[in-house]
Design goal:
about 260 residues; mainly alpha
């Protein structure tokens, strides 16, 4: 029912959501000379620093793998999840004054944050594609499958955002706890290293990480120009749908109590 309401109200509140996203852009790039161009430059500069550190200073190599594309694809996807879930977590608490003045479906706040960061994510794919072309990584029709994993990751992130935004209303310590969780989660997602370097029991454990499945799905296409396995399709889809549904249930169950705690 809650999911049905989200879909039915999406068009009704689309103008409000677009205004909130526009506001976030204006706040983020206020008094910035380059403005939205930072969405292109930031991942490119960050990738350059990380590539220098891991491939030159630490002499990190992966035999037969385009490490630049490997690294940047993982960074771009994890950074989207990290920023979107963080913004969604604080969205209810930071907008409580607006909630008390007019009626707005509360799910719009975390959802708009995930959409806002999603636009930045799409822009960050441009420098990623440039790196793919410059480094000579193979390009194939399998690139048309990338929207599938992006949609899965978006649904997963929205689900996590619903859960975090709910918890943070009742437990403000979650703001600090989650930063630690994200740091651990980043190392449990093979962004800088190859999972084959780990013992077999850790490899099996890491594969239960949905972010590993999303990143691996994208890398199969970007690095190998191959179609991901059916198992990979199923893992990504199930992870996204299950977490999204759980997030909706948790948010719906607690949203009426937000006004007493914010």
């Amino acid at each position: 029912m809650f999911i049905k309401n989200i879909l039915s109200n999406f068009k009704r509140y689309s103008f409000l959501m677009s205004q909130m996203i526009s506001r976030d852009f204006k706040v983020k790039y206020k008094r910035s000379v380059l403005g939205v161009l930072w969405s292109l430059l930031q991942p490119l500069l960050m990738m350059s620093v990380m590539a220098l550190v891991f491939s030159q200073m630490f002499k990190f190599r992966m035999e037969g793998v385009n490490y630049l594309v490997y690294l940047m694809s993982g960074l771009v996807m994890f950074n989207y999840f990290s920023e979107a879930s963080n913004n969604a977590m604080t969205s209810i608490v930071f907008n409580f004054q607006l909630m008390t003045k007019v009626y707005i479906p509360k799910y719009i706040f975390p959802l708009s944050k995930c959409l806002f960061v999603g636009i930045n994510f799409l822009l960050s794919l441009i420098p990623l594609l440039l790196i793919v072309i410059i480094t000579g990584a193979p390009i194939s029709l399998n690139y048309l499958l990338l929207p599938y994993v992006f949609i899965c990751m978006f649904l997963f992130t929205v689900g996590i955002g619903f859960i975090l935004s709910t918890i943070s209303v009742f437990l403000r310590d979650m703001f600090y706890i989650y930063s630690i969780i994200l740091t651990i989660w980043q190392y449990f997602t093979p962004i800088f290293y190859d999972i084959s370097m780990l013992p077999m029991y850790l490899q099996k454990l890491f594969k239960f990480n949905p972010l590993y499945q999303f990143v691996t799905f994208a890398r199969t296409i970007l690095l190998d120009a191959k179609t991901p396995s059916l198992q990979s399709f199923i893992w990504c889809g199930l992870s996204a749908i299950v977490v999204f549904i759980i997030g909706c249930i948790v948010f719906k169950k607690k949203q009426d109590k937000f006004i007493y705690y914010v």
